[in-house]
Amino acid sequence: MTIKEMQQQVDAWISQFEEGYFSPPTMILRLAEELGELAREVNDVFGEKPKKPTEPAGSVAMELGDMLFVLISFANSLQLDLDQVFEAVMTKFRARDQDRWTKKSSGLTNAHGSDDQKGR
């Protein structure tokens, strides 16, 4: 699924309700709320503070999904095309951070970590 399709699905979902999108300040609060829930799950799974037996089980993946939904909702409410936003951000990172980190010495790698030069 493309980002554009995700934005369309979220818009179709929210557009069926009279209330529509939340205001920008409420969207920020929703992101903060979801981030807190994600942080709790990460701390349970990877951190030093496991959940109490009385706390409900959760999922890092679902909390990331909740954040993605709210982020897409926020972008839609501001009429932002996330494909364009993402390209602009990647251009910024490529220029600003090209020499910031230590490059891997094993050659060029693709997004899956395999060596492009070996055709894997």
UniProtKB/TrEMBL annotation:
Keyword Cell membrane included in the entry's annotation: no
Keyword annotations for this protein, in alphabetical order, are: Hydrolase
Q: Where is the region Disordered?
A: 98-120
Origin organism is: Sulfobacillus benefaciens
PANTHER family for the chain: NUCLEOTIDE PYROPHOSPHOHYDROLASE
GO molecular function terms noted in the UniProt entry: hydrolase activity
NTP pyrophosphohydrolase MazG-like domain boundaries: 23-101
Supply the Gene3D superfamilies for this chain. Answer: MazG-like
The name on file for this protein is Nucleotide pyrophosphohydrolase
Indicate the segments annotated as coiled coil, or none if absent.
none
